[in-house]
Task: structure prediction
Amino acid sequence: MRKYDPFIQTLICYLFIVLFIYAAASKLMDFENFQIQLAQSPLLSAYAGFISYAVITVEIVIALLLCYKRWRLIGLYASFGLMIAFTVYIYLILNYSDFIPCSCGGILEKMGWKEHLIFNVVFVGLSIIAIMITRESVKRKLFLKLIVIGILSAGCVVILFLQSEAKMSKQNPFIRKYLKDIVIGKHSYKLKNNSHYFIGVTNNKLYLGNRFAPLYVTEIDLDNYQSRELIIKIDQDDFPFRTVKIFISSPHFFLVDGTVPVIFKGDIKTWEAKVLSTDPTLYFSKAVISSTDELFVRKQDFKTKQNILARYNLAPSVQQFTTTSIFGEATQGIFDTDGIPLFDLQQNKFLYVTRWV
Result:
């Protein structure tokens, strides 16, 4: 059987080369998503930036070492150490994590975490077989090296885990974690890009706006999930628009831009809109519309430079602002009162979600 040893070792090396190159390439092609997934890891959140670069670099370096016969043994030891680290990480995820995050991409993206663990254990075994074939020293010394490398690799992961937990608890670097499976999907519709935003639902149809194409609306039929593109026509287009946003309050829609004091109103049957108001005070940073055609906005007071909330009645006979403050006198600056305006259609109430308490 010894005559097949070189072939077996070479085959194992090729398997590791393919694994590491493919894994590194897939992470690089979607690097931003890879970093986000690491940031959501319950074990390594605090070191997501460093680890994202380190893992890819190590995978490429090991693959290069395995390509050259002179450095192949070092590459095999490194492969063993890296696979031990991955295996310990998955074991900690499965047994000591509050929740199990998404896979970090690569060849194992479609695998579950238990299958992922088995896959890693198999490759740990393959690396041991390839190292033993070299017979570079007596078995006692060889196993001693493997034990030392295994302990060091596992120890590094455990230390990172403990340090990350302490850092996230006491010195949080403002990394927000997203809880998994809060919402269970019933139907799905694949969007062509990530620039869409929700503008309303009416007559069992959902409407999406597009930040990059502000006059385009995507209509999705909730009965058959077919879509069509609609184009809004406005009677005056010489305004210096910057942040156009559309709201639907059936049977009408409104087009506003907080940097331009103008409101357009149109009918969802024709998708044609006319100027409703050019009130010179109609500047705001965020807005939401009610079911009674009232525009609630967050804007800045020109005198105090503080955030205030305002209500703008869109009825043609009224069209005026009513301002109020719900933040209290204890708040300072605009950061304390930063938030998102919302409108609850069921309770017919305006809500403002803020970080300040």
About this structure: The helical segments are 5-29, 31-39, 48-67, 72-96, 113-134, 139-170. The longest strand covers residues 260-267.
